[in-house]
Amino acid sequence: MKIAVPNKGRLHDPTLDLLDRAGLAVEAGSDRQLYADTVDPDVSVLFARAADIPEYVADGAADLGITGYDQHRESRVENVSDLLDLEYGSCRLVLAAPEDGEIETPDDLDGRTVATEFPTVTAGYFDGREIDVDVVEVTGATELTPHVEMADAIVDITSTGTTLRMNHLAVVDEVLDSSVRLFARDDVAETRDVERVATALRSVLDASGKRYVMLNVDESDRPAVEEVLPGMGGPTVMDVEGEESVAVHAVVDERDVFATVAELKDVGARDVLVTEIERLVR
Ligand SMILES: Nc1ncnc2c1ncn2[C@@H]1O[C@H](COP(=O)(O)OP(=O)(O)OP(=O)(O)O)[C@@H](O)[C@H]1O
Ligand SMILES: O=P(O)(O)OC[C@H]1O[C@H](OP(=O)(O)OP(=O)(O)O)[C@H](O)[C@@H]1O
Ligand SMILES: [Mg+2]
């Protein structure tokens, strides 16, 4: 099983971090190599540019890929499908034009020029609206093109909006919402090996925002504690040998932990321990 992952850029580190937490850590010393092993003998990674990853998966150089949905759409590959939204690298592709210019709606661009690193998605957007534009492909610094008469507007990525503001550009319309996805080639999407990787990554997402709460309580106070901790399918209760008390464990939403611990103390809980959860396989 080979997973294509970004070799650099803003998606590189969070992707390796996610694989690590999923129990698929990339072996140390693998930087800058084309291929690397993971701690699982059945899973290796192929490092590639974020934009090339859908193509690598479609062509069979890798079986699975991790990159932005924007890159997936731009690549036009047809034999790959999303398995999971990995919930990082969230951004929007937007149509933007100079703040105080003549372009206020997409229709104002009829007969004009739009610069972008995403020519396929951009052409699709304007075709769908039957607006005739000349799409110019650039490979970076797209925000500058309206200021040097190369283009009347751009289609580019935004997240905080800082880059657009700095360049005196205003959003005219939304083109696409994106985040990082795990996707597979269709001919392997339903195999056990792909399912194993997807399950491991999903378990990290499911564990985020959850805490594991452990405590001791006298048998007599146990019903009150169970009342406070409905948990995932109820808390786990264990007898503590040679004592009148029981140990209770439960998964609690991170945002409820503060209030829950206070309530537990009120109803007689002792030795309350709160820990992070690495993975949660449902
Ligand atoms: N500002 C941003 N906020 C959130 N996600 C972003 C942002 N910019 C880019 N992304 C996401 O990260 C992906 C890759 O962008 P990144 O800048 O890391 O690589 P790149 O510019 O293609 O790298 P290079 O061209 O140097 O190989 C984008 O396709 C998008 O999905
Ligand atoms: O809304 P913002 O938070 O300002 O983010 C948007 C910017 O982020 C990306 O560039 P990146 O930082 O990846 O640099 P790059 O052009 O070298 O890829 C994108 O191309 C925009 O320029
Ligand atoms: Mg970039």
Can you describe this structure?
This is ATP phosphoribosyltransferase. InterPro entries: ATP-PRT_HisG_long (IPR020621), ATP_PRibTrfase_cat (IPR013820), ATP_PRibTrfase_HisG (IPR001348), HisG_C (IPR013115), N-reg_PII-like_a/b (IPR011322), N-reg_PII/ATP_PRibTrfase_C (IPR015867). The chain is an alpha/beta fold and 282 residues long. The protein has three domains: 2-89 and 179-206, D-Maltodextrin-Binding Protein, domain 2 (3-Layer(aba) Sandwich); 91-178, Periplasmic binding protein-like II (D-Maltodextrin-Binding Protein, domain 2), CATH 3.40.190; 210-276, Alpha-Beta Plaits (2-Layer Sandwich). Helix content is 26%, strand content 32%. The strands form three sheets. Strands 2-3-1-4-11-5 form a six-stranded mixed β-sheet, sandwiched between helices. Strand 13 (236-239) and strand 14 form a beta hairpin. The model has no long low-confidence stretch (mean pLDDT 95). Bound molecules: adenosine-5'-triphosphate, 1-O-pyrophosphono-5-O-phosphono-alpha-D-ribofuranose (PRP) and magnesium ion. Residues 10, 140, 156-163 line the site of 1-O-pyrophosphono-5-O-phosphono-alpha-D-ribofuranose.
